[in-house]
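task queued by scheduler; priority normal; single chain, no ligands, no partner chains; default sampling; output format set to structure tokens
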Amino acid sequence: MEKKRMAVFVSGGGTNCENLIKYFSNRPDVEIPLVVSNRADAFALVRAERLGVETTVVTKAQLSEPDHVLPLLRGYAIDMIVLAGFLPLIPEYLIEAYPRRIVNLHPALLPKFGGKGMWGHHVHEAVKAAGESETGMTVHYVSPVCDGGDIIAQFAVALSPEDSVDTIAEKEHELEMAHFPAVIDKLLSELPAW
């Protein structure tokens, strides 16, 4: 059986990263050999190391260098890259090297509340300010346009006017925990050989 190998890119706390590692931990057909962060202080690195996954830090400057990043990923035979709260824009060389193999999780129902500056709490604040009756999560392919790649899956949750920004964030995060690993699982099962 040919294993599919996935790298998870993170910038923050890493709850989705940990959820993915645990979800795939007993699977003979899927491996997460590497977690990459642009921040050395990202708690996601601690979570990954606790679960026995190797980690590395790639600075913003290094991310822009194909000669740094591509050999790293090829060294782990990475088939797919999953962005789980990774904030830097993915450079075009990486998108070209991994066509339709880089996937992002966005904490809103794109195309609403996407684009530059729209991440984390900023998204939930915008949802609240707009008086939305629902929010949700979007899994999409990464393209050169920020949050502009083809949508793979979306999951929604109802909101009430009484919901605070924190409550909106909690409701959306519950969707991520429930659905993100299964969406990635399906993508991996359909991923063609190189």
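post-processing summary
- The chain is about 40% helix and 25% strand.
- The chain has one domain: 4-190.
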